[in-house]
Each structure stands twice: as structure tokens, then as C-alpha cells.
Amino acid sequence: MSSPGRVRIVIVGCGFGGLxxxxxxxxxxxxxxxxxxxxxxxxxxxxxxVASAALAPADIAQPVRAILRTQRNARVILAExxxxxxxxRSLTASGQRVDYDYLVLAPGAVDNYFGHADWRAFAPGMxxxxxxxxxxxxxxxxxxxxxxxxxxxxxxxxxxxVIVGGGPTGVELAGAIKELAVDVIPRDFRRADxxxxxxxxxxxxxxxxxxxxxxxxxRALAQLDELGVEVLLGxxxxxxxxxxxxxxxxxxxxxxxxxxxxxxxxPVIAALGAATGPGGRVAVSADCSLPGHPEVFVIGDAxxxxxxxxxxxxxxxxxxxxxxxxxxxxxAARISGRAAGAPAAFRYRDLGSxxxxxxxxxxxxxxxxxxxxxxxxxxxxALHVTTLIGFRNRAAVFASWIYSxxxxxxxSRLIVRPRPGGDGxxxxxxx
Length: 431
Ligand SMILES: Cc1cc2nc3c(=O)[nH]c(=O)nc-3n(C[C@H](O)[C@H](O)[C@H](O)COP(=O)(O)OP(=O)(O)OC[C@H]3O[C@@H](n4cnc5c(N)ncnc54)[C@H](O)[C@@H]3O)c2cc1C
Description:
Elements: E1 7-12, H1 16-24, E2 30-36, E3 40-42, H2 47-51, E4 61-63, H3 64-67, E5 74-78, E6 81-85, E7 90-93, E8 96-99, E9 102-105, E10 109-111, H4 129-148, H5 152-158, E11 160-164, H6 168-184, E12 198-202, H7 214-227, E13 230-232, E14 237-241, E15 244-247, E16 250-253, E17 256-259, E18 263-265, E19 282-283, E20 289-290, E21 293-298, E22 303-304, H8 317-336, E23 353-356, E24 362-366, E25 369-372, H9 373-387, H10 391-407
Helix pairs in contact: 1-8, 4-5
Bound molecules: flavin-adenine dinucleotide.
């Protein structure tokens, strides 16, 4: 698998952390093996646009193989890592043993149902392409059922969309669904009045976007209100059923509940048996290594680190990318024997945060600057187009957005039917 005498670096996960680590190792004298259970690198910040039929899956994902095609020291395998033997310095990937000298774990996060795994069947989360297309199919199918439903109460339940979790994903999705129902599809239906669709965003805390400044929370709330999204703050979900959701003591009939309420590290992290910090993330040392194992690094959403400035590295793409690049620099210095070239402890550089609230609306925080509205939306647009991986994706996304903006249309409104016993087709739990 590796050339004799060459250092073997294995990277598990090719999301933001893994990809940026792999790319930054391009010029090292090491063999880099990248393992991912998906064959694509996914730009998760735009997943909600796939779920709300604005973009197609291929617009926001790129085959890992294609991205690393010209990097001669990198090899890619499609496999799921299920076990890690720290003592033997090996792992199990789809049943095969893989040995490493250095291991970089960047498996990201999965949805956290806080002990209610059964809710998942009725309230899917949105972590990968499969889940986003499942949500898209469920949304679109609800409109279809509303078109033929005779009973008014049942039709209202079809046209009630509940999103649990008022972080950036929940806020963005709520705005996008409301716009789909009100601006994009009304003229396509004859009997269902999709403009009457209710979009309800439920947040247990007392404000939206808790990771941002309170000004941004208020701005996002006002913008959602303008759009007609109903926001329930301080309301905890206590039950999720096929017929709806119970929150704050009231039952909301809905055939479409979406989970955006929290994350926990990918299950493979449990194989480390390591000490964890808040949210179950692995508590890593100042250089992102696993305590007691200087040859193992955990980065991105799976890692918990309070950096040298006392700042907790947030579970966002910048955190993962910066950790990926940092670990690559550290490894490059170690491999070349230049201890002096090794970077000091990891420091997170906060480049700001933003969330969009539908067409022409967003909130942005950069440095001490906080703003909303059209300028914020344009900044959001520019950042997302420029940070997408691959020219084709950038061009496709830009073209789709212009098309949607000018014509109030969405180009990816396909219902993908689940194939019983099929080969990896999204499984739609509503059927
Ligand atoms: C819907 C959504 C919206 C978001 N919006 C924003 C945003 O606007 N701005 C922002 O900064 N951040 C956003 N984030 C967060 C950001 O995407 C994450 O912080 C970032 O992706 C973390 O990078 P990572 O490398 O740790 O993990 P990921 O990017 O999640 O990559 C993990 C990779 O590991 C692979 N993997 C997992 N387990 C295994 C295994 N056992 N074997 C093999 N491969 C495995 C996965 O297939 C995946 O490719 C969003 C996330 C989501 C889900």
C-alpha cells in the first residue's frame, strides 16, 4: 500500500479538515492515504439548498479522487473505518487492516437526537447528500399530497413544515422552505394553496443563532418574521411522531419535521476510547494530538480544543480547515526532521460568521462589524461561491442562483422515490 521506507500518513474523512490536511501534505516525503466512506467531498454549508430544491447534489460535492488527482503522494480509498488499534498503529477500513505511522482523524459529526434515536424516522437530519435529497423528496411530496388531500386538517398538516433547532442550518432552511412555498411553486399547483404553508422554527434557547452576537439573533428573527416564518423560542421538543411534533406542551400536526438541533462526533471516534469534552468531542492537546499519542491527531468537528488564546475552536468549516492545515505543517516538520520549523500550539483565527435568511437577506459578523440585509446577503453569496471546491461547481452554483433570483424558479425539484431493498437509494421514512 505504501513505498518502503516512506512515512505513512492515513487521513480518515475527506471533509473540510481531512481535505485541507491532505492537500497541505502535497510536498512532503510521505505517502498519504485518504479514506472516506463517501466518494465525494461535500460543501455542507449549502446542503440546505439541496434539501430545498435550489441546487443539485453535484453542485456542492466533488469526487475526492478528482480533487486529489494531481497529488502524486496521495491515494484515495472508499471505505468505512470501523476500528482503530492505537497500540498496533492500525485501523480497520471496510474489513481491511491499514497500518499507519501517523493518523489524522477528521470524521466530522452526525446528528444528535439527545437519546431519542426513534425521532430520526420522522425528523431526518441533514448531514450528507443522501439525507438532503431525502428531505427534498419529503418536502416536495408533502406539496403533492396537499394537492389531492380532501380533508382540510390533513391538508394543513401536509403544508406545515417544522424545523427543530435555531442555529444557522435551521434558520437557513426555514427561510428557504418558506420562499419555495410562497414565491416559487404556487402557480404550479391548482388546488393546494402553497402560499398558506406554515414554516415553524422551534428553538429551545431564548434566541436564534446562539453562536452569533445577540444583534445578529434579533436581525435573523426580524428577517424570518418578514418572510412569515413562525419562530418559537424557549420551546423544547418533547415528542416527534409521524403525525407531528410536541413542543412547549403543545402538539403541532405536521407531516414534515426536520432535525437541525445538534450534533455529536461521528461514531468511529468511540473506537479511540478517549476522554471527551463538551458535546462528546475528543479532548485533544494543544497541537491537536490525542493525549498520550503524539502520532494521532483529531481535527474538525470531532475535536474539542481550547486554543492558546483561550478560545474554544468552534465546529465550523474554518475550524476544520485551519486544524487540517496546521497538522499538515506539524507533520511536514516532523518528517523532514526540522523541529525548528514545527508550528507552535494551534491557534484558531476567527474569520467571522454568517447565515442567510432567504433571498436578499442575511446576517454577517466580520471582526467588530455586524450587519444584515442585502449587503450581508451579497457578502454571503460571494463567500460561498468563492469557497466552493472546483470551478465547475462554482460556475454551476452561480448560474443556478442567478436563474433563481431572476425567475423565482428552483431547478432541482425532483422527488427521488425510495426503492424497496434498493441499492443505497435514499430511504424515505414517510412511506
Ligand atoms: C447542514 C450544515 C450546514 C453547515 N453550515 C455551515 C456554515 O454555513 N459555515 C460553516 O463554517 N460551517 C457550517 N457547517 C459546519 C461544517 O460543515 C463543519 O464544521 C465541517 O464540515 C467540519 O469538517 P470536518 O472535516 O470535521 O468534517 P466533515 O466535513 O463532516 O467531513 C467528515 C468526513 O468524514 C467521513 N467519515 C465519517 N466517518 C467515517 C468513517 N467511519 N470512515 C470513513 N469516512 C468517514 C464523512 O463521509 C465525511 O466526508 C455546516 C454543517 C452542516 C451539516
